[in-house]
Amino acid sequence: MNKPLILVVEDDKPIRNLISATLKMHDYKFIAAENGSGAVLEASSHNPDIMLLDLGLPDMDGVEVIKRIRSWSGMPIIVISARSEDRDKIDALDSGADDYLTKPFSVEELLARIRVAQRRLSVIQTDKNAATSLFINGELKIDMAAGMVFLGDEPIHLTPIEYKLICLLAANVGKVLTHTFITQKVWGSSWENDIASLRVFMATLRKKLESNPDCKNCIQTHIGVGYRMIRIDPPDKE
Ligand code: CA
Predict the structure, then answer these.
(1) Which CATH number fits domain 134-229: 3.40.30.10, 3.40.50.10890, 1.10.10.10, 3.30.9.10?
(2) Distance, CA 44 to ligand 1 centroid (Å)?
(3) Strand 177-178, strand 226-229: pairing
(4) What is the distance in A from the centroid of ligand 1 to the CA of 89?
(5) How far is the CA of 71 from the centre of ligand 1 (A)?
(6) In the predicted model, what is the mean pLDDT of residues 123-152?
(7) Span from the CA of 100 to the centroid of ligand 1 (angstroms)
(8) Phi/psi of residue 87, each to 5°?
(9) What residues does the ion ligand 1 have nearby, CB within 5 Å?
(10) Distance (Å, rounded) from C-alpha 225 to C-alpha 69?
(11) Which CATH superfamily is domain 5-127 in?
């Protein structure tokens, strides 16, 4: 895959410089903005592939930036937040961000998140071309038309809730989904944010997936935030 163009939005100059230097060192193309209105402007004029967005901006809430950009762009958005902004981070994910980094973060963490975003980007681009009812991720196969889930060639039996969960995670592979997002999609708003029940269903779903080593860790837990299905294939073609 070609190196993506990354938009860096951060008002804190030392952090912006650190991110820019890291991207430069790893041959990423990037542009930078130091506030929310600059971010919207750069995004609309340069059409970047990935955005790194600090949530605490001087002129505009980072969540507001996401809402504006999401009205016309599906690019992966990684939010950068301070620990004190945990609630904002969840709001950002619910508003359409894909992933998050908490300050202070290491250069390795930053690069790892960008690689996840790149894989997600390739999923988004593939989805545009092929409206398929078959989802394949490593050994995990979901035949949406038949309502069947396979590990390798073995069909596994899932309850209706587990099936809804795995389809939701699969449809958003690579993206962190918050507890609120998942419970509302699976149960509707009447079950608003019943995290305890979600945890139980997720545990039983995982247990069923664990019989195949390839799928053992394909669902990540983000404590206090939600869950993400990791893309197992295709392997990195960087
Ligand atoms: Ca800031």
Answers:
(1) 1.10.10.10
(2) 21
(3) antiparallel
(4) 13
(5) 23
(6) 82
(7) 14
(8) -65, -40
(9) 11, 54, 56
(10) 22
(11) Response regulator (3.40.50.2300)
